[in-house]
Specification:
single chain, 321 residues, alpha/beta, Rossmann fold, nine-stranded mixed sheet, Leucine carboxyl methyltransferase 1
């Protein structure tokens, strides 16, 4: 059995709890995929366990995955062949492989997480031929270490996002071009980091990446009874949510960018995101499972959001409207 504390004794207890959320999210995604909410041929290579979740959880993950994908494709249509994607706190996400199946070419794709997570991901990629083949570019050397992979445009690197100097060093190792159009993705990541560290990170990105779009998927509207229950559930798992003050509402989500030298920002709760998706697709997935309490789904959607920040006006309309 893999034990985080055995291999990474310097990790804080809070960090261990955050790392554990990767397995839970991956299991949720795998369960939803098995039920037919969306197609992902690669998540079974990263997670074997499947515990059936409630229908509203599956629909929530569907809205999350498809909402983020919608922004990604808008970004790629504008960014062109020099597009880079940097996925912060990527966990066992399979976005690179899914984009590869769509024959989308990227200049660079970088996944970043705690070394305790990337070491597991690197191990699983190395032992699964189907994963390794898809990152192996013709005439490109695959460079492996216990926590990092560099294979053509694909890079998986272990680094603590709170250590910006080490982050910058790792991005140089991944051959990131700071002047190229770059999409940052952070799904349920910033909420686990202290606000001053998030502010330094966002300010640094705004300074280093003049052509940048940032997608945040995170909690919002947390100052009510439903939000308090969510918080207590997370705290019971050891996640103290150091950045929760930025999740008060949509305005505080946007302010995080506005206060750190970004040109603009905008946020939508997941009710808006869900109903921006194609009607035919929503009707299809709503037939997969009977939903007893529609109100519970709406409450859940009201307490999560997508927030965008941009450093250049060309990405200001990569939205849900």
């Amino acid at each position: 059995m893999f034990k985080i504390e055995d291999d990474y004794p310097d990790l804080k207890m809070d960090d261990e709890a955050v790392i554990a959320t990767n397995d839970d999210a991956s299991e949720c995604k795998r369960g939803a995929v098995l039920l037919g909410y969306w197609q992902d041929n690669y998540i079974p290579y990263f997670i074997k366990h499947n515990q059936r979740r409630a229908p509203e959880i599956n629909r929530g993950y569907y809205a999350r995955v498809k909402g983020v994908e919608k922004i990604i494709h808008k970004f790629l249509s504008k960014a062109g062949s020099n597009a880079q994607i940097i996925n912060l706190g990527s966990g066992f996400d399979t976005l690179y492989w899914r984009l590869k199946d769509q024959e989308i070419k990227l200049c660079n794709f970088v996944e970043i997480d705690f070394p305790a997570v990337t070491s597991r991901k690197c191990y699983l990629i190395k032992r699964n031929k189907q994963l390794l083949q898809r990152i192996h570019e013709k005439d490109q050397e695959v460079k492996l270490s216990p926590t990092d992979i560099h294979a053509g445009p694909y890079h998986c690197i272990g680094v603590d996002l709170r250590n910006i100097s080490e982050l910058e060093n790792k991005l140089h190792q991944a051959e990131v071009n700071f002047s190229y159009p770059t999409l940052f993705i952070a799904e349920c990541v910033l909420v686990y980091i202290e606000n001053d560290c998030v502010n330094r990170l966002l300010s640094w990105i705004a300074t280093k990446f003049p052509k940048c779009l940032f997608i945040v998927y995170e909690m919002c509207n947390m100052n009510d009874t439903f939000g308090n229950v969510m918080l207590e559930n997370m705290r019971a798992r050891g996640c103290n949510l150091a950045g929760i003050s930025s999740c008060k509402n949509l305005e505080t989500q946007q302010a995080r960018f506005q206060c750190n030298n970004w040109l603009g920002s905008k946020a939508w709760d997941m009710v808006s995101v869900y109903y921006s998706l194609p009607t035919s697709e929503r009707q299809r997935i709503e037939k997969l499972e009977f939903l007893d309490e529609q109100e519970l789904l709406i409450q859940l959607f009201q307490h999560y959001c997508v927030c965008l920040g941009w450093t250049t006006p060309e990405f200001a309309d990569c939205d849900f409207e």
